[in-house]
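User: Structure with uridine-diphosphate-N-acetylglucosamine, tokens only please.
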Amino acid sequence: MKILVTGGTGYIGSHTVVELQSKGYEVIIVDNLSNSSIEVLDNIAKITGKKPLFENFDLTDPLKTASFFAKHSDICAIIHFAAFKAVGESVDLPLKYYRNNLVSLMNILQGMIDNGIANIVFSSSCTVYGQPESLPAREDTPIQKAASPYGNTKQISEEIITDTSSGFNIHAILLRYFNPIGAHESAIIGELPLGVPNCLMPYITQTAIGIRPFLRVWGNDYSTPDGTAIRDYIHVVDLAKAHVIAVERLTGHKSEKKVEVFNLGTGNGFSVLEVIQSFERMSGVKLNYEIKERRPGDIEQVWADTEFANLTLGWKAEKTLDEMTVSAWKWEKALAEKK
Ligand code: UD1
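Assistant:
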């Protein structure tokens, strides 16, 4: 079965391609390499023994997207990762985010309609919950007004998919990710942040390896046990595996509704300080960090209710926080050796 993975050279995309290929799927990646590197294709091949098919173009281009789908109408399912994801940048450049994230999705859905492709898995985010009134966040926890244009593109995308599916033969699974971290055990693929990372884990590993002088911990006055903010960190390989199950569910006609939504997290919340402690324990490196003011736009705490995903998909995140931090460290060290 041929699966289209948009954004397949990116962080979560590349790990998902590996899992798909190892289950025997034929993968075709579309990526414009705006936030990833072409070498990822060879690195995927080093792990799986097979280089995925690849086309480099921008999915916001309606003509290129239409001709791509006309050529590949035998695609059984699409996993759509390709999107911009920097929360802060989206506040400064909202149109860049709305244009890229929404136009590409609409072009893909049009291609599906025109070519009879029925299945799409969409990368959504726990950001749609904002700061939930009660925790853990369930799939039916009310969605809150997005705190950033990035978050809004995820909310609007969910709505665009839902509305389109109701009038056409389109079946969708919307996966709401919590905080993916870590890297493939081979340390051949992993997260490759461009410039200064915003996210916690790459900032920690870059500080530990000496690229950054110190980590800034954004706030220690939250109403949490140690005062730092809490997130549900999930190993990227666990997350990738859930995508294969979602594809199997769609192509095997096992969905119970045309659009299904699943949380992808571990169900456990960890504070920033707990992540730092895990990293220090697993790497043996003492991390240089300073407590700073809260980061604007950050929520205090969120973690997932995973029961629906566990029971319905038969999937459960397996890796512990220590396994996540040690794999992120192994990847950072592998990157340093390449330089
Ligand atoms: C947010 C979004 C997520 C999105 C991601 C993209 C929410 C709930 N989550 O994740 O949907 O996909 O951005 O980038 O809106 N921290 C530090 N120092 C740092 C970096 C981070 O203390 O240098 C702290 C943050 O304040 C936060 C935690 O670490 O408490 C995790 O931050 P980060 O990795 O940036 O992810 P989110 O902001 O949770």
